[in-house]
Design brief:
Chain lengths: ~425, ~90
């Protein structure tokens, strides 16, 4: 594989950029693989990469119905954080933060990792107390957290609305200084390029339409490009999980819902951090191009539409204007939506299933981008060793049976009520 | 914007309603032994179909009644709405 560096860029520039190697090949599916990963999103690509790199399993195919990066990995607002209270979440996502720190070097691909800090605003004394508790829980798990007062926030983010006579005045906030953003497409491409170089077949425009299960054991998959035999199959299809589960006669603790995001026209640098509104659901950061990147609530009813509805966008942006009044002057460049695998306790599932050789990775809700590396890392372990890693034992499917839920937000099963 | 026909009030905008989820799940009968699996299915497991979905909505800013709506989860086309205690 050609290494990317400033020298290779210089050399290729002189040659008119005609000699770049393809970043990954476009093979036809083989008859059989040791492991097939369904879904060429961030999680599927990362899983294949870690299978090859950490477990020496390279006879692997990624089967993607569209093109890699066309799903949620290319549709999210790229926020990275590990500001969770429960141990299962905190320790898992913090391992993710560790993997993010070295990702550009490890993948030899600039993922534009930007640990700019994430600030969750508080708008009441009670919320400050809740954040103090959350911050302390984070610190117990070795995660960085800083409780900030109103004046400290004012210094960091002066553009916020600090007027006295507002409905939700800013009391302070909780900051995770190591939180931030990364370029989502680059993450997918970086993992794809490395996985390909280690022998993984990335098969695009190939839709999985069924499974071959004999005596409780997986034997292969059926696809729009023929049958493929496999000893092990891993599902990484995010918002499409329930559709594939139905083919397997499984009913899962999931519902698919729609989340929208939007970006404004580009403006000069004005927001250095990721900031979230605490009296509703709105978050904002500024991209390197200068666009304000914004998102918030789910549309709120089951949806596979991959595009959203205006009432939710209006509601979310009303909150945005309450937090950052200058937003009202900006023109919107683009809005889009993605379909989310909402789990019934808001936490993911990374587990084996009752079918031998079939593994499940789903339930990412609206927060699975930050999990990309650690999800791939733990899922590869789960598949290769046929047992979960310590970091994902808590994310088992059986927890809904036994009552060991990981309900970070205390929302119960209606996780789509945000 | 969805327009939902409330059987009590007529055609209204989605802004007047709040969503209540899958209307096909049934609570296990009372006064009977309920297995963990039955309870798990009732509380957590959902089919989440791509296509026709029968779901509950409450006309919260109108008559406040719960209604059942049959809607396509891809196109959002609404086929039928009835009172909550009726079958679709
Ligand atoms: C608007 C929006 C904002 C978000 N913001 C954030 C954020 O700020 N921070 C964060 O951490 N997370 C965020 N998320 C969530 C995050 O994007 C997802 O949780 C995560 O990307 C899901 O994992 P993935 O990348 O593997 O999914 P995807 O990229 O969706 O990958 C799944 C793939 O499976 C493929 N597939 C489906 N069915 C089949 C089939 N039958 N056969 C073959 N292939 C199939 C799909 O085509 C798709 O490419 C956001 C999501 C959205 C939509
Ligand atoms: Zn009504």
């Amino acid at each position: 594989m050609q290494k990317y560096s400033v020298f290779s860029l210089f050399k290729n520039a002189l040659k008119g950029h005609k000699d770049w190697q393809v970043a990954w090949k476009d093979p036809n599916p083989k008859e059989e693989y040791d492991t097939v990963i369904i879904g060429g999103g961030g999680h599927g690509l990362a899983t294949a990469y870690y299978l090859a790199k950490e477990h020496n399993i390279t006879n692997v195919a990624i089967i993607e119905k569209g093109w890699i990066g066309g799903g949620n990995v290319g549709r999210n607002t790229t926020i990275l954080r590990s500001n969770y209270m429960h141990d299962e979440n905190g320790l898992f996502y913090e391992k993710g933060m560790e993997l993010w720190r070295n990702m550009s070097q490890e993948l030899n691909f600039n993922v534009m990792y930007s640990p700019r800090g994430i600030i969750n605003l508080a708008h009441s004394d009670a919320q400050m107390n809740a954040y103090a508790r959350r911050g302390n829980s984070m610190k117990l798990n070795g995660i960085d957290a800083t409780l900030l007062g109103r004046e400290e926030i004012k210094k960091l983010v002066p553009i916020l609305d600090f007027s006295e006579n507002v409905r939700f005045p800013i009391f302070g906030g909780l900051m995770q200084p190591s939180g931030g953003t990364a370029r989502h497409d680059a993450v997918a491409w970086g993992y794809a390029r490395q996985a390909d170089s280690m022998g993984v077949d990335i098969i695009q425009h190939c839709e999985v339409t069924g499974f071959d299960v004999v005596n409780g054991k997986i034997k292969g998959i059926k696809t729009s490009r023929g049958n493929i035999k496999a000893k092990k199959v891993g599902l990484c299809v995010a918002g499409s999980t329930s559709i594939l589960a139905e083919m397997l006669n499984m009913t899962l603790p999931l519902e698919t819902h729609l989340l929208q995001a939007c970006v404004s026209e580009p403006i000069k640098p004005i927001l250095d951090h990721v900031v979230t509104f605490g009296a509703g659901h709105f978050y904002c950061s500024q991209s390197d191009k200068g666009e304000m990147v914004m998102g918030g609530d789910l549309d709120g009813y089951n949806s596979y539409a991959q595009r959203g509805n205006l009432p939710t966008l209006q509601h979310v942006l009303t909150e945005g204007i309450a937090m950052l009044p200058f937003l009202s002057k900006l023109k919107m460049l683009r809005t889009w939506g993605g379909i989310m695998d909402m789990s019934m306790d808001g936490s993911p599932i990374i587990d084996k299933t009752h079918i031998e050789g079939l593994y499940l990775n789903c339930g990412w809700c609206y927060g699975g981008f930050k999990a990309t590396p650690v999800s791939g890392w733990t899922f590869a372990h789960t598949i290769a060793q046929d047992r979960p890693h310590d970091l994902n034992v808590g994310f088992n499917l059986n927890r809904f049976n036994t009552g060991h839920l990981i309900d970070e937000k205390g929302l119960g099963t209606k996780t789509w009520i945000s | 914007m969805l327009y939902i026909f409330c059987p009590h009030c007529g055609l209204r905008s989605q802004n007047e309603f709040s969503y209540g989820g899958d209307a096909t799940v049934k609570r296990p009968a009372l006064n009977k032994e309920v297995s963990d699996e039955q309870w798990n299915n009732f509380v957590y497991n959902r089919k989440s179909p791509r296509g026709k979905h029968v779901e509950l909505w409450q006309h919260i800013s109108g008559c406040r009644q719960w209604i059942k709506v049959q809607r396509d989860t891809v196109t959002h086309e609404i086929f039928k709405t009835v009172e909550a205690n009726k079958e679709i």
